[in-house]
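seq:
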Amino acid sequence: MVAVVTDSASNIPPELARAHRIEVAPLHLFLGEEEYRDGVDLTPADFYARLVTDRAHASTAAPSPGDFLDAFQRSGEDEIVCVCVAADMSASRNNARLAAGRTDAHVDVVDSMSASMAQGFVVLEAARAATMGASLEGVAGRARTLAEEAALVATIETFEFLRRSGRVNALQAFAGTTLGLQPVFRFRRGAASGVARPRTRERALAHVVEASLAEIRGRPVHLAAFHAAAPREAEALLEAIAASAEVIEQLVVEVTPVIGAHTGPGLAGAAFVCDEAKLRP
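struct:
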């Protein structure tokens, strides 16, 4: 059977990864001089406490080629599809390709062009195709088809953590914080774009729902709400979007610290993959 490997930016809950025999290569998180494996060594609650109270500087790094080699070996298969976080966001895909060149297994590396459960659903559907007996080309093809449809829409409470991580400059962060803006953004096919900049959290969350439904356009959809220390808002987002969509599957996930390092607590959004084939799990 074809094995499926991914990186921890996919945010797939561990029980789902185990059920579908998905091997996960962890990204790396640095807090000050300490290093942690994403999703393994530090709980989200502990991470956000340190990020806010200690004002620790957080940075991240992609899984190394060695991390991917370990995941390939754990799979026990000689045909592997590896689905990585958007190549424009991380060196994960490049490192997976380096690892693929160092193993006798036949590895096809796929750029999900997304992150969190938008990437996660691409991974899950690839694993389901593998379970149904698809070839290496079939599994990779399923992943690439859905990667074209993977998207996320989200809002953050403050620009501060993006500033700290270097994702926006100090002037942009100051302007956003001073004006009390609650930015809403979209990420699809490897590119981020602004949706709205309301001044209240309520309006920001409403924009997430509206923009998500506009992207879905009534098509069958794999849907997840994701959050960083904002579970109630994530649950409300899921309920609001699901009420007006044809949902194949739905869940709420808390993002791993490697994503939260850039957004800080308060991130809330929807990740989804429209699926015309409607392959039900």
